[in-house]
Every structure is written in structure tokens, then in C-alpha cells.
Amino acid sequence: MSTKHLRPQTSLPLRLLGGFALLGLAAAAQANPSCGLGNGKPATGEPLAIGAVVGKTGPDDFSSAASAAAAYFKCVNQNGGIHGRPVDYIVADDQWNPETATQVASKLVKDRKVLAMAGSTSFVECGANAKMYAQEDVMVIAGVGVPRECFNARNYAPINSGPRVSATIAAMYAVQKYQAKKMVCIIPNIPSLGNWACEGPKEWGARHGVVSETIAIDPGSADATSVMLQAAAMKPDVIIMNVPKGILVPMLAAAEQQNLGKKIHFVSSAPAYNVDVPKAIGPYWKGRFDTNLEFQPLDSQGADNRNWLALMDKYAAKSDPRDSFAQSGYLAARLLTEALLKMDPKKMDRASVSKALRAVKGFQSDILCKPFYVGEGQRHNANNSGPMASSNGSGWSVAAGGCLTAEDPELADIRADEAKMGVR
């Protein structure tokens, strides 16, 4: 398989892993990756078109989930494909632009006739394309969902938990560990992300006697020192950082300059969990900064996590990140592949594939805290549990107690769907 792109792409930068981290993750990998039929025979039949939309070029490269999915599909095609049919994986770059997202998704769905989407990761494409996916009956098993629309569409099922659920878990942990009574949540003022992603801690806190306030910042022009001083002036016990890594690091540096970590506990949603963050923020934050993880740690020793790392080593470029987004892309591709392998390869069309994906429940991986499902619901947020970790100065120390499940009031309909399906 040669992964196709509707926009030419250069190799991905190794922005997350230094040499030491690469060695550590390599040690966690298993020798021979497994995927699909695992028969060692290249697939030569009629290709099956699968698509993805990612935000590769723009404020940040947000495409590592699709890179991992591409590696998985390459492995599948070298091991029998989908009962002899190779996957033709086509990745489109939306350039962080809603109009471009609409255009490239339309080409995938209407021109390339993709059967489904897997590994999509974007800040803008959920809102731009959710209606079209429903009209065309295309299921999206997304790698990473960010804004609200990603978790509120019938045909869009993200593998990750999302910033609202992740921040809620971080808030729950802060109350459990630090007996916090007042929190401030910092979030970019991006449409459909803004206050929504900090409403989880606020609504959960209101039920438990905890006050949570929100500071929405302009991600392109916010002054780190001003934001930190504004947050500190509200006299919180805890500050929840619900921002991308590129904003997080300078803000923690500003907080350190004011010595805020001495009297205020800092926690974060999942974007902080990158192997380079502890070193980037420095020794001041040892034991003073905790983050949620949407998946199990990158170096965890479960068989599936080791399989992901081994597969990346064999089928992905060395420059492709081995990060939590890559974990999610791997899972999205694996889920889709296993659903397709249960079908008659001669009778696959979009409607039957969408039906098969909606029927998925009990999808298991040690990368996940709990089995994953898709289901017939009007929206999807199946991954709503995750562990916590604390910076130890050079890396992350996973907190005792394992995975925490979000008690976000917004998940009430998700819990009702789970009860109907007999999961959890």
C-alpha cells in the first residue's frame, strides 16, 4: 500500500521524542508486530478505499494519528489485506481551514467513494463535515476529536476521550489528591472548544462543593505571564491547564517565575502528556504538575501497546511520532480492520461497512482503560476513563489507583446508551 494524500505531505517531524525516549520505547516494543490476517502474503485484490482528514499544515502538525493508521494498514496489506483486498488509505490535509476541510472530505466521500474514515484528527473538520458524513452514511472512527462537534455527531466516533472529559478527570484527581475547593480552568477561545471543554470541571465541581472558573485565552496572542497572574488573582487551589503543549510550556515557565507552584497545584488535560514535557518545564515542576492520560502510558508493557510500537518501528518512518495520538490512530485502524475482516469481502459497500462499525462493542486493547464500542447512539464518547501521571523532573510517574472514570454530567446520555447496549 502506498498511502495517498490529497495534498502533498512531507515527512513528519520528530517533535516529541528524543534519543533517550526512543530507546525506552523501543525496549517496550515486541519483536514481530501482528495485524489483520497475519499470513505474510501481500494483498493483490481490488482495493478498499479508506480516508482520513487531518490538520497537517497550519498552526501545528496534527497528523500523527493518520501516520500510525497508515503504518497499520501497510502491515495489513503485507499480511493478506481484507481477505485478499488491500486497503487504499487516502489522507487529506484540511490546513486547519473549515472550507478546505469541507472540500477535501467531499472529494474523499463523493469522488473517491471511501467506505469509511479512520484516524482523522482535526480542530475544524468535525463541525465542517458531520452533516455530510451523516447524509452520505459514512462512519468516521477518528483518531483524535477536539471540539464539541467531534463528540456530538452520529457518524463520528473518536477513539480519544476529548478535552472536556480529560479536564474533568484532572479536576476529580485534584480534589481527591489535594482536597481542592476552588479551581481555574484555562482554555483557548477556539469555537466549540472555548468554555465547553472547561464546563466539565465546572459542572462536576458544582455537584461536589467545588467552584471552578474559566479563563478563555486567544491562543495566538495570549501573554503567558498575564494569564498566569490573572489565574492566580482568583485565588484557586488548583489551576487546570486545558491547552496544547505549545501554549502549556511557556505558561508553566511564567508560573515558575512567579513561584506559583509553591502555593497552587497545577494539573492538565491530556495534551501535556508528551515525553519531552517534563524536561521542557524543568525540575521546578517535579511533583507539582499532574496530567491526565487518554490512554495507557506510551511505554506500558501490555501486549497491544508493544505491538503498536513494533508496528511503528517496522512500517512507519523513524520521524513519525510515537505519541498518544499515534496510539489512537493505531487503534482506529485496528478497529476498522477487525470489523472489515468479519464481513464478506465481495459484498462490502458503504452501508454495510457503516452498519458493521455501529455494531462494534467490546473492542479490547491494553492501550485503553476499558473496552471500546461504537453503537447506534446519536453521539459518541466511549473513551471516558484515563490514568494520571506526575512530572518527576525527567519523565512521568504514573499515579497509583489506575484509571479514573469521568463523572461529567454531560455523559448522562452516553451512560444511558451503555446501559441499553449492556456495556460497562
UniProtKB/TrEMBL annotation:
Keyword vocabulary terms for this entry:
Signal
Recorded hits in SUPFAM superfamilies, A to Z, give: Periplasmic binding protein-like I
- Tell me which Pfam families the record gives: Peripla_BP_6
Q: Which residues form the signal peptide?
A: 1-31
Q: What is this protein called?
A: Branched-chain amino acid transport system substrate-binding protein
**Lineage, broadest ranks:** Bacteria, Pseudomonadati, Pseudomonadota, Betaproteobacteria, Burkholderiales
Q: Which domain of life is it from?
A: Bacteria
In which family does this protein belong, per the annotation? Belongs to the leucine-binding protein family.
InterPro entries with a match to the protein in the record:
Leu-bd, Peripla_BP_I
Which segments constitute the Leucine-binding protein domain? 48-383
Report the source organism. Roseateles oligotrophus
